[in-house]
Design goal:
Layout (H helix, E strand, L loop, with lengths): L3 E4 L1 E6 L13 E3 L4 E5 L4 E5 L2 E3 L5 H14 L6 E7 L5 H5 L18 H11 L5 E11 L2 E4 L11 E5 L2 E5 L4 E3 L2 H14 L2 E2 L7 E2 L2 E10 L5 E9 L14 H25 L12 H5 L1 H5 L3 E8 L6 H16 L1 E4 L9 H25 L3 H29 L2 H11 L3 H5 L4 H6 L16 E7 L3 E7 L2 H6 L12 E9 L6 E9 L4 H166 L1
Parallel strand pairs: 2-6, 2-17, 7-16, 7-17, 20-22
Antiparallel strand pairs: 1-18, 3-4, 4-5, 8-9, 8-12, 8-15, 10-11, 13-14, 15-16, 19-20, 21-22
Helix pairs in contact: 1-3, 5-8, 10-15
The chain binds adenosine-5'-triphosphate (ATP).
Adenosine-5'-triphosphate binds next to helix 2 and strand 14.
Amino acid sequence: MDSQEEHIKVSIRVRPFLSYNNYHPQIIRIDDEKTIHIDDSEHTITSHYDKIFSQNSSQKDVFDFVCPSVLQTLEGFNATIFAYGQTGSGKTHTIFGVGWENNELFTENSNQGIIPRAISKLFSIENEYISFNLNFLQIYNEHLYDLLSDPARAKSLRIREYKSEIFIDGLEETSISSANECMLLLSEGIKNRAVRQTRLNNQSSRSHSIFQLYVINKKGGFRRSKLSFCDLAGCERYDKEYEMNNGHINELKNINKSLSTLGMVIHALASGNKEHIPYRDSKLTRLLQDSLGGNTKTILIATISPQIEHVDTTINTLIFADRAKEIMVRVKRNEPAAMNSTEIIINLQQEIEKLKSLLSVVRVENGASELNKKVLELEQENEYLRRITENQEVEYTDVSEDSEEENHILGLSPSIGKNLLKLPDYFSSKSQKISPEPSDHENYSFLPAKTGKNTKRYVFSEDLDFCNKRETDSPFPHTKNFSTYIGTFPSESSPIRHEKFYVKNVDNSPAGRGTLAKSTKNLRSLDDLIEEKYVDEEKERKLAEAKLRKVHHRLTRLDELEAERKMKFKMDFERITYEKRKEKDKIRLELAEKERRRQIRREKRIREMQKIKKFEEARRREEMARLEAIMKIEENNKRNEEKKKEKILEQKRKLAEFNARKQIKQERGFISGAWG
Ligand SMILES: Nc1ncnc2c1ncn2[C@@H]1O[C@H](COP(=O)(O)OP(=O)(O)OP(=O)(O)O)[C@@H](O)[C@H]1O
């Protein structure tokens, strides 16, 4: 099936206020299921995600959101669900649920987190072809531990990579046949996790834990998919007011370091730069590699606290979630591995063999052990060669049989041969390897016998005169008057080995001399025989020398390699130290810059507030003046009005008086007229 590209799904879950929280203003508003607002005096932020879970959302609501991806593992897709967020914001609550201490979560209830719900869901689907394996691990202080087999955190495990797939050496994968069995193991593992009471959480996870369920579908082959749940340890700030012991500080440093690496990985992936993703900078990112950048359907649940004092961390979590939204992953259904059980077994066996051999290679590659191994091999080889050389010497010097043969060829009696200075004893001791040379060379004749390429043989005679004539003398008869000595004289200055036969002439009579001459002649024919042996020995010696040269060459090369490795290690170490220092400086600068900007913002806000206050004051004063003016005008108007009214009243009064007077006049006129 073709692969398809899709975004990582991102959701936000807001934790409710906990009972021990004091009242705090609501700074989080959720408009619809996809939009969240953060509003406080300093920030106004709006952001969109695949799903927002409010403070009232239930565990079931969250599971319903991830359920389709969980079920897709049955069809051969890999899936990962991971929770990220500030300490105490509800990651463990979301992923595992609460109440594991009392095994409360075995049966369905509202507190169950995503994992127990996923287990129940998967086991509720009856399918004879499907089986499950699981493992459960934690990353504590940058060390990996098997939560199911190593509760004491005694043995940390190592990450390996094979065919670009990440696996953990020594992590036990347990086959499970029922949901109950699975829950039991899960609860065992949960109890083994590293937790600690902190200021923000009574049961704070101090490790990142990863629970992996392998879904094996045997229908039409052997299809294996992986469902991972990851509960990350929460990021936490160093708290000066809360006394932290060294263990706590160490945990905090490791947690924050791995989370910041995760942030960098997310940042790099989101920016589309697939070239250099710093997966290897932490164990966490190494393990999440295939979830973030590989063939896996991934869901991130970012948990946030509703409290105003955590607003900065909440915003950082949202920034992290924003970046994760941008990541594209290419997902593909896993292919079936083989068609029948025999093939499956063969495939698995082959795979195991490959992995085993790979492991041994990786193991030796990972340190000086390879070098040690090679050095050991070479030492063994050296020892072997040394022994060969010694044996050759022993064989060569152990001439008891040869001397008997020689005696025989020389025609010397066995008794004479046996008296040859007891040669085997003589040569068997290293300290006496060199035969005694005749004390006075003047008295010896020097007869060159056969000369091999690397061997020179000489025959000495005590009698110079006699020896000078030896070439023309008659054959050497068997006689007890002669003793023959054989010795090997390694030359210090040259690789040529000098071998000297010297014959003592006991009987200095002419007959005796004749015998010696004959002996010498026979000796020369013996040389012919021995020469063949020397040629073989020569070959062997050459071989041994070549081997030694090779060993020497290899040792030199190993020294060079070791020097190179050390140099590379030193350079890498320096580079990493430099980068880390740079990174630290950068973070320090960023923090300082952030602090500076925050300070500027604060000052600006204070200035603005002061401006607004002044402006308000002026406005108030103006308003007061305006009101006073209005009141004055109104008073004037009122006064004028009253005056007007008085005037009118006066006029009315006057008019009334006038009218009254007029009427009186008229009445008087009328009376007088009537009288008149
Ligand atoms: N949605 C929720 N509803 C009710 N209680 C919650 C919710 N989320 C978290 N809590 C409670 O808040 C407390 C802290 O939650 P939890 O331990 O899950 O946080 P965390 O993010 O895993 O913290 P840490 O990173 O320190 O482990 C717990 O008592 C938990 O039960």
